[in-house]
Amino acid sequence: MPNKFARRMGTVHRSFIREILKVTADSEIISFAGGLPNPELFPVKAMDIASREVFAEIGASALQYSTTEGDAGLRAIIAKRYEGRGLTIDPDSILVTTGSQQILDICAKVFLDKGDKVVIERPGYLGAIQAFSIFEPEFVTVSLEDDGPNLEELEAAFKDGAKCFYAVPNFQNPSGVSYSLEKRKAVAELTDRYGVLFVEDDPYGELRFLGEDLPSVYSFCKTPGILCGSFSKIAAPGFRIGWVVAEKEIYDKLVIAKQASDLHTSTVAQAIMRRYMESNDIESHVALIKDRYGRQRECMVEMINTYFPDSVSITKPEGGMFLWATMPEGFSSMDLFDLAIKDKVAFVPGRPFYTDDSGENTLRLNFSNSDEARIEEGIKRLGKSINSFLE
Amino acid sequence: MPNKFARRMGTVHRSFIREILKVTADSEIISFAGGLPNPELFPVKAMDIASREVFAEIGASALQYSTTEGDAGLRAIIAKRYEGRGLTIDPDSILVTTGSQQILDICAKVFLDKGDKVVIERPGYLGAIQAFSIFEPEFVTVSLEDDGPNLEELEAAFKDGAKCFYAVPNFQNPSGVSYSLEKRKAVAELTDRYGVLFVEDDPYGELRFLGEDLPSVYSFCKTPGILCGSFSKIAAPGFRIGWVVAEKEIYDKLVIAKQASDLHTSTVAQAIMRRYMESNDIESHVALIKDRYGRQRECMVEMINTYFPDSVSITKPEGGMFLWATMPEGFSSMDLFDLAIKDKVAFVPGRPFYTDDSGENTLRLNFSNSDEARIEEGIKRLGKSINSFLE
């Protein structure tokens, strides 16, 4: 067979991050490389109780096939929680997905023909780059500034015929950057003006530990957009439960694509998550996570100020799980990585978050999955590596 | 936007079966339409115990992100069980998937470029038609005879440049047909000779209640093929856990596609299934299912012989969950469906299982999800509808 694999497989690569995680399995290495929530905060006991109740009360139906749209009770809970964030969402406009990664896959299926222009942030979320790449779009990137995308670049991309704009306006992965209120409104105004579909990915939005909560870009858009959410960061990622909000015409297409992808999301997982949400005070739980991540982030910034040279700049995230560092031009974080591993500390080089081979001098640091003692020791080690590297 | 949706969405339709299931929600209707396992046989208590043990022993890690490849212990169990069926499978060649539907999606991603020729059985499995359609291949169908595919048609399709052949050799959905030993060998010989990738879907293989177990086509293939399996029919479908076996070069590509699709299958669901498999005698459980389905199938065939006119022919499945009926040419099972619904009985018209708009006079009957009393009453009602319809 001359063409054994589909052409698209030539452009899609195994996640570099997941490869790095193998290198960092060494327990002596302090790793800021992963993107994991802190497992100490997982509600294990409450999930155990929820699961016992599910098996006792609706055992057989929790083990059966179910609808593609998802558990009606769970969708009602998701809708209800948006009320608290000032959004009126019809439960029938919510589709439960197998993690929010699946949303990216089904959105690509529904919207992207080969060569379609999809706008992403630079740096951009790796999972989206991977999911979209399968459908061979043309990536157009816009610089991410401290308060959101560069609007001139964004408008130029829209004028040039972009089909959709995928973004993470709250505490973006990888940069930790959040959009200002002004830029949220401006982005919505631009997507409306140019008829570009806005796909708002918001896995971290509830994890704000500094500043004021801001409305979603989705809430400012007049043309129907897509809003994505997830239980992974507020409850636990092991269930693989995310969701997407979309108006009916789009929703119906997403359901067809979801059905073709995996029929439906795990009935058992949805039933346990629903029961957990019904029986527990999720808002207090989220407050606990925010408090912990806030302290860990504060510690990381303080340690960076102490141990990194002044020539390295960092973002100051107001929420989420990541912080982004930029070294002077000409230095490669891939080379730094090798040095850091010798010093028993790890991070993710920034390069994979760029589709244009730039970003060589950047790196991503995760603060959610290390306590303050490990952050202090890890940043000290990394400061040593960086200082000797930049000398 | 002139092209709001991707071109592919024009050719993919919502599952007709899932639409039918809505019509049949009326509790007075006896439905042979669904494709559900019998929930009375779900191991609810054992799953409850397994889940308690998981939360008690590995709670936090069962709630965390995990590897794309899947739980190592679960993969070892899957490999071990193949031994009992005469196949030596390396656990590292097993990728856990979100149901076996996902295998079809990731196989399509890895292998199918637009316009590639994919061979399927006529009638064919609807989930595969849907999953593949997203990637816009050209479907080439081969007639399914009582003992497997028509070999002349298959060879002609292979000669004409087919890239892969997707088939369900054991108790096929929708027809209930199984391949004879001779046809298994012949299919393997043809795929080898023409270098066609064979994708063997085997969700029902362990549910044989008549005749002798036969080796998989996969075991006869010299060129590496793909073997798919699932816990949905032997344990419970609500977990959405399937798996695919493939040799390394293909495996690595499947992992990349899976990662882009949903990162990994639910950690919690995999942990509970693994514990369930470790602590219970699955072989006795499968024996229980086979006994029940065997009796239900026997009852259905007997009732059909009693109540259907002789002009309607049926398959005589030796396992699985479905039986296939063919009316004389010129009669439409879509029209019969409307009549049957008035008589409070439902089935699936055969048309959606054909990609060429044929099969108008065929219908699928499910026997796994109705007890013998309901089968007797339901087939009596359907016999009445058919008799008046064919008059």
UniProtKB/TrEMBL annotation, chains A, B:
Cofactor or coenzyme needed: pyridoxal 5'-phosphate
UniProt GO MF annotations: transaminase activity
Keyword Transferase included in the entry's annotation: yes
Gene3D superfamilies recorded: Aspartate Aminotransferase, domain 1, Type I PLP-dependent aspartate aminotransferase-like (Major domain)
Pfam families, A to Z: Aminotran_1_2 (PF00155)
InterPro entries xref list: Aminotransferase_I/II_large, Class-I_PLP-dep_aminotransf, PyrdxlP-dep_Trfase, PyrdxlP-dep_Trfase_major, PyrdxlP-dep_Trfase_small
Signal recorded as keyword: no
Name of the protein this chain belongs to: Aspartate aminotransferase
Native organism: Pseudodesulfovibrio sediminis
